[in-house]
Design a protein that fits this description.
alpha+beta, 2 domains
Length: 110
């Protein structure tokens, strides 16, 4: 009887702690899921040395994001105006480079 009472008392505490962690994690994810529009280019050799592709302004004068993707094939979109969505990679930018995004979705710019 004492063991079942301990479980009855601890279970709500465990559930509340889990819910707090879940909702805290969701709030942080929303802020780190950027969407950006620009022209997609292959990265080539860069001074900052991260990303397989780059998102630049339409006229090519401004570097907006360094990109990588384990999902959508970015090569199919090189040279085109696109809108990308993804997850910002923590720990970047470095060495005067751009922010870094793991692309989860890509499509033609509106």
């Amino acid at each position: 009887m004492a063991a079942s009472f301990r479980i009855f008392v601890r279970l709500p505490l465990v559930l509340m702690a889990f819910a707090a962690l879940l909702f805290t994690g969701c709030a942080g994810d929303a802020a780190s899921r950027p969407t950006a529009t620009g022209r997609l280019e292959e990265a080539g050799i860069t001074t900052f040395q991260y990303g397989t592709h780059l998102l630049v302004s339409e006229d090519g004068s401004t570097l907006l994001w360094a990109l990588r993707s384990g999902g959508p094939d970015l090569d199919e979109w090189i040279g085109r105006m696109v809108t990308v969505t993804g997850v910002e990679v923590s720990g970047y930018p470095v060495e005067n480079g751009p922010p870094y995004m793991e692309v989860t979705g890509i499509g033609p710019a509106p």
